[in-house]
Design a protein that fits this description.
361 residues; alpha/beta; 5-stranded mixed β-sheet; 4-stranded mixed β-sheet; 32% helix; 22% strand; globular; binds coenzyme A
Length: 361
C-alpha cells in the first residue's frame, strides 16, 4: 500500500528578538503577566519577507530529505500572512528555491494551516497524484500585531517551519486525521480588514490588526484540541498512553497543558517551545517538530499526535507513525540574513501605523 511520510524537516527563525521586557516599554503589561498567563518569554520579529523565511526553512527540509529543489512536484505554503495575494506567495518560494518542476499554492487555515496542508499533501501523495511535496508553515504576524493592543500583541511572533512528504510502502505516515471549523463564530478571532472587504487603497489601523475575544478563544481551543486529539488517537487504533509525543500548536502554555491533561500525557511526552517564539500560527508545529528531532525526542516508528486550533475558527489533529530515519540525510547552510537594523527599527512603521488609530476616522 502506498503511504505518505515525512522525510525532511527544517526551520527558519528570524534573529531579532522582542522580549516581554521590551513589550513593557510600549504597552501596559509585565513580564510576569505574560509569562504566567501564556508561557511566552520572547518572540522573533522578521526583518525579511515571509517568503525569505519560507525559503530557508524549505532548503533545510530538502537537505534533510536528501532532495534537490527540482525533485519537488508541489510546494504548499501554509500561511495567513502572505506577502502578496496575487501572486500567491508560494510562487515566490518556488522561484527562490528553484523548484522548477513543481506546482505551488498557498493554503490558509490560520493556526491549523500546517495540519490542513499535511493532510492534503499526504492524501495527494498516497493517491499517486504527486510524489514529493514541500509543505511550509510560515508567518509574519508582526504585520498584523497591533502594538498598541496589549491583549493581543504579546502573543504572536514570526517564523517558518517546513517538511517534505514522500511516498513509502512502509506502514508509516498519517494514521488518522480530523479537520474542523466553526465559521459561525469566526469573528471572535480575526483581522477585520485584510482582503476585499476593505475600501480600495485605505488601510484603517483600527481594523488592520488581530482582534480576539481571548477567554472565549481559549475555552474553545482547550475543548477542540483535546477532543480532536482523542478522536484521531481512537481512529488510529491507539490508546492515549501509547502516544510517544504530542506536538501541539503553541498558542498558550495553559492550552497545551489542558490538552495534555485530557490525553493523560505527562509533560515529558509533550513538546513545548512557546517560551522562545510565542504563537507563530501555521509555523508552530513544523518548527516544534524540527526542534523535537534536533533534540532526539522523535524515535523511529514513534506515535506522534499534532493538534491545532485557531482563526476560522479552525481546528485540526493528526495521528502519525514516524518512519525509521530520525536524522537528516544532509544539511544546508541556508540562513536568514543578519539584520542591519534593530528590532525597534523594524517595528517603527508598525508603531507609527497602529499608534495613529485614536486620531484616524
Ligand atoms: C489572551 C489570553 C492570554 C488572556 O488571558 P486570560 O487569562 O484569558 O486574561 P483575560 O483576557 O481574562 O484578562 C484578564 C485581565 O488581564 C488584562 N490583560 C490582558 N492582556 C494583558 C497584558 N498583556 N498584560 C497585562 N494585563 C493584561 C485584562 O485587561 C484583564 O484585566 P481586568 O481583569 O482588569 O479586566 C488568553 O485568553 C488566551 O490565551 N486566549 C487564547 C489565545 C489564542 O490561543 N489565540 C490564538 C488561537 S490560535
Amino acid at each position: 500500500m502506498r503511504n505518505a511520510t515525512i522525510t525532511g524537516w527544517g526551520k527558519a527563525l528570524p534573529p531579532l528578538v522582542l522580549t516581554n521586557t521590551d513589550l513593557e516599554k510600549i504597552v501596559d503589561t509585565s513580564d510576569e503577566w505574560i509569562t504566567t498567563r501564556t508561557g511566552i518569554k520572547e518572540r522573533r520579529i522578521s526583518h525579511v519577507e515571509a517568503t525569505d523565511l519560507a525559503t530557508v526553512a524549505g532548503r533545510h527540509a530538502l537537505a534533510a530529505a536528501g532532495l534537490e529543489p527540482d525533485a519537488l512536484d508541489l510546494v504548499v505554503n501554509a500561511t495567513c500572512t502572505p506577502e502578496s495575494l496575487i501572486p500567491a506567495s508560494a510562487s515566490y518560494v518556488q522561484a527562490k528555491l528553484g523548484a522548477t518542476n513543481a506546482g505551488a499554492m498557498d493554503l490558509n487555515a490560520n493556526c491549523s494551516g500546517f495540519i490542513y496542508a499535511l493532510v492534503t499533501a499526504s492524501a495527494m501523495v498516497s493517491a499517486g497524484v504527486v510524489d514529493r511535496v514541500l509543505i511550509i508553515g510560515v508567518e509574519k504576524l508582526s504585520y498584523v500585531m497591533d502594538l498598541t493592543d496589549r491583549s493581543t500583541c504579546v502573543l504572536f511572533g514570526d517564523g517558518a517551519g517546513a517538511v517534505v512528504v514522500e511516498p513509502t510502502d512502509e506502514p508509516v505516515g498519517l494514521a488518522a486525521s480530523e479537520l474542523g471549523v466553526d465559521g459561525t463564530v469566526a469573528d471572535i478571532l480575526c483581522v477585520p480588514e485584510f482582503g476585499t472587504v476593505g475600501s480600495p487603497g485605505v488601510r484603517d489601523p483600527r481594523r488592520a490588526g488581530i482582534k480576539m475575544e481571548g477567554p472565549e478563544v481559549f475555552r474553545r481551543a482547550v475543548t477542540k484540541m483535546g477532543e480532536a486529539s482523542l478522536h484521531v488517537i481512537a481512529e488510529a487504533g491507539w490508546r492515549p498512553e501509547e502516544v510517544d509525543l504530542l506536538i501541539p500548536h503553541q498558542a498558550n502554555q495553559r492550552i497545551i497543558d489542558a490538552t495534555a491533561r485530557r490525553l493523560k500525557l505527562d509533560p515529558a511526552r509533550v513538546f513545548v517551545n512557546i517560551h522562545a517564539y510565542g504563537n507563530t500560527s501555521a509555523a508552530t508545529i513544523p518548527v516544534a517538530l524540527t526542534e523535537a528531532l534536533e533534540q532526539g525526542r522523535v524515535k523511529p516508528r514513534a506515535k506522534i499526535v499534532f493538534a491545532a486550533f485557531g482563526g476560522g475558527l479552525t481546528w485540526a489533529a493528526a495521528a502519525l507513525t514516524w518512519g525509521d530515519r530520525v536524522t537528516p540525510i544532509a544539511t544546508s547552510d541556508a540562513q536568514v540574513p543578519e539584520p542591519d537594523r534593530t528590532v525597534w527599527d523594524v517595528l517603527a512603521p508598525n508603531l507609527e501605523f497602529y499608534g495613529n488609530q485614536e486620531r484616524s476616522g
